[in-house]
Amino acid sequence: MTGIDLEKIKATLLADVAKSDTPQDVLRSPAFKNMYSQIGKLEPSERAAFGKAVNDVKVAVEAAVHQKMTDLEDKDVNTLDVTAPWDVNAGAPQLLSTSQGTQHPLTREIEEVVDIFTRMGFAAVESRQIDDDFHMFGALNFPENHPARDGYDTFRTEEGFIPPAHTSTMQHRILKDGKDALKHDEPIAAVSYGRVFRNEDVDATHEHTFYQVEGVFVSDDATLGQMLGTLRSFFETYYGQAVKIKTQPAYFPFVEPGLEFAIEKPAALGGKPGDWLEMLGCGMIHPNVLKMAGIDPTKYRGFAWGGGVERLVMLKYGIEDLRHFESGKLAFLRKFV
User: Fold this and answer.
1) Which is higher by pLDDT, 44 or 216?
2) Nearest to residue 116, comparing CAs of 264, 231, 243, 263?
3) How far is residue 15's CA from residue 10's CA, in Å, rounded to a whole number?
4) Does residue 95 carry a pLDDT above 70?
5) What is residue 85's predicted lDDT score, i.e. its pLDDT?
């Protein structure tokens, strides 16, 4: 058995949470990595029990962090008797203090992402927050029985409309609106961005509501090489440093071939060689998708990609929990003022 005293480590971490004004930082303590690294050093018969004990420590610390952040938030809440005469509240000026509002970090980062792509020559189109089955699935080569169409994966209204599960819902419109440009030897180049909705269980890495950015490019000579160069240029601009990239095959109904695109986590962001992070899905637009938009796939070809904005921002700022973005907690939001 390892000589690590888990109870002592837990007590130290909980004490750090209690005295910190930024308790979420404790979740990035090297103590967690050290504890998990011990599991592989144990005999196989001991690993399960020790791993469970380590997870119990993490759960306890996460609960303490959540409670401390709630307590910090409550400190900022002042109550006014809105039914009382003004002078009743005027005697406590600290209750009346206000502060200037700021952009939500996701709004700010989406603007930066869109700005990078528009400087590359892409038009920007905001996605919808309600759409139909055709634009969500039919126009994108999804088979009738594809699991994404199932109610377990996609929200639907009683009338059958869909809060989009991906910004790809705009792809058919972008292709149709841009096909006349192809006749004048001009490419279709656009990014769509906006809020999307998935029937997900919420945890530190999953949300039912989040943001995506998708790109579409079509010309008579589009290639995978052009796509990879475009994406590398975007990531290097967004993170302000050179990045290594790699791809591996993946299946998406609307592209062929389809790829998962990953970057090596930059050292400046805490990465090390071989620490690869999947950032988005991409590939060459499927001929059926081009045909649906009235574009001849024997004359034109294109590429597309799409990924979550939160994943970009979490890596950029070292944010450990996706739920912070939708929490409305001022203690978190003030970090971006």
Assistant:
1) 216
2) 231
3) 8
4) no
5) 58
C-alpha to C-alpha distance for 267 and 273, rounded to whole angstroms = 8
Cis ω before 257 (30° cut-off from 0): yes
- More confident site: 34 or 307: 307
- Amino acid identity, position 272: K
| Sign of the torsion angle spanned by Cα atoms 293, 297, 303, 306 | positive
Which of 332, 304, 330 shows the shortest CA–CA distance to 101?
A: 330
The whole-angstrom distance between residue 63's C-alpha and the CA centroid of its chain comes to 23
Of 248, 189, 241, nearest to 215 (Cα)? 189
Say how far apart CA 169 and CA 129 lie, in whole Å. 10
Please state the pTM of the whole predicted model: 0.68
Spatial contact of 238 and 116, defined as CB atoms under 8 Å apart: yes
SS3 letters across the chain: CCCCCHHHHHHHHHHHHHHCCCHHHHHHCHHHHHHHHCHHHCCHHHHHHHHHHHHHHHHHHHHHHHHHHHHHHHHCCCCCCCCCCHHHHHCCHHHHCCCCCCCCHHHHHHHHHHHHHHHCCCEEEECCCCECHHHHCHHHCCCCCCHHHCCCCCCCCCCCCECCCCHHHHHHHHHHHHHHHHHCCCCEEEEEEEEEECCCCCECCECCEEEEEEEEEEECCCCHHHHHHHHHHHHHHHHCCCCCEEEEEECCCCEEEEEEEEEECCHHHCCCCCCEEEEEEEEEECHHHHHHCCCCCCCCEEEEEEEEHHHHHHHHHCCCCCCHHHHCCHHHHHHHC
Question: Which amino acid is residue 211, in one-letter code?
Answer: Y
Q: How confident is the model at residue 260 (pLDDT cuts 50, 70, 90)?
A: very high
- Distance in angstroms (rounded) separating the CA atoms of residues 330 and 28: 20
Per-residue pLDDT tens digits for 96-113: 444 567 789 999 999 999
